[in-house]
Design goal:
3 domains; 6 strands; about 300 residues; six-stranded mixed sheet; about 60% helix; Alpha-Beta Plaits
């Protein structure tokens, strides 16, 4: 081996040492008189230097969490990082989905991180279930399953600010509850209240708001419902009441009903007041054996 060959090998060694120590090096310039059997060595060293240089931007960006820098093509030095880069990009997308409320995400491609990630998702799901249960309990009457007074009040306030009219309100009072409680016990009274709630639910649409707003008092919010349609709903409730009483053995469901319709913004509370008044008129008329008055419409 002559001096030129030894010099070339030292130069190759220096380049490789620099790559290992600093991650970068200059390529080898073509040299005259180099034996042909050393040309592949020079070419391989230069390719390695170029590959290191091309991979630096990508690897440093990845280390900084910048996933916008694409991996260099046909570069075996970054092959493991390319998969990590793809995994992190997908994980970023999954994190955005979670932030948007989608908890149906799962990671199975990042080892121990996958376990921690999936445990986090499970914890978030459990937290959501707990929150939903608490929210359900906070707005529903535990005895009947219909909405409670708090939710009814919230809906009334929302409708008062809204623009979708007409809105009809039904107020229902359960007759004879005290007598059932006194003669048959409170368990029978509870069953009577439950039966009354079911009558109201069966008589209205699934998306109408049925609420228990007092011990024996209920209210129903009928969105986008005219006074004529509300009168039809009252008839349907009466039919459901009759069907329940055909099969009742220990009590009779008797509801005093009143309705009013708000056709203008800001008149929903007034409709509730009038519906309550008309409920008492209905109660009195039914006790006297007279026909109850027709539904009241707030059109002014």
């Amino acid at each position: 081996m002559d001096e030129r060959e030894r010099e070339l090998i030292r130069a190759c060694t220096d380049r490789l040492t620099a790559l290992l120590a600093e991650g970068q090096a200059e390529g080898l310039a073509p040299a005259d008189g180099v034996p042909a059997d050393l040309h592949p060595l020079v070419e391989a060293v230069n390719q390695l230097v170029a590959a290191f240089a091309a991979s630096q931007e990508f690897i440093l960006a990845l280390a900084d969490g910048n996933l916008d820098v694409a991996p260099p093509p046909r570069n075996q030095l970054v092959a493991p990082y390319k998969q990590l880069h793809a995994n992190l990009r997908h994980l970023t997308w999954q994190a955005k989905q979670i932030a948007a409320g989608d908890l149906n995400q799962r990671v199975d491609y990042l080892g121990e991180f996958s376990i921690a990630f999936n445990e986090m998702i499970n914890a978030l799901r459990e937290k959501r279930r707990t929150e939903e249960q608490l929210r359900h309990l906070s707005i529903h009457d535990p005895l009947t399953g219909v909405y409670n007074r708090m939710y009814f009040t919230e809906e009334m306030e929302r409708l008062e600010r809204g623009r979708h009219y007409p809105v009809s309100i039904i107020v229902a009072d359960l007759d004879g509850l005290k007598q059932v409680n006194d003669t048959q016990g409170h368990a029978a009274g509870d069953r009577l209240i439950q039966a009354a709630a079911q009558v109201l639910k069966d008589g209205v649409r699934a998306d109408d708001v049925v609420a228990r707003i007092g011990g024996d008092e209920f209210a129903v919010i009928l969105s986008d419902t005219t006074a004529a349609s509300a009168a039809t709903v009252l008839e349907r409730i009466r039919e459901c009441e009759g069907e329940v009483n055909c099969h009742a053995t220990d009590f009779v469901v008797s509801l005093s009903l009143g309705t009013a319709t708000a056709e203008l913004k800001g008149s929903v509370e007034e409709a509730l007041r009038v519906a309550d008044l008309r409920m008492y008129e209905d109660k009195f008329a039914r006790k006297q054996g007279r026909t109850p008055p027709t539904p009241f419409r707030l059109s002014e």
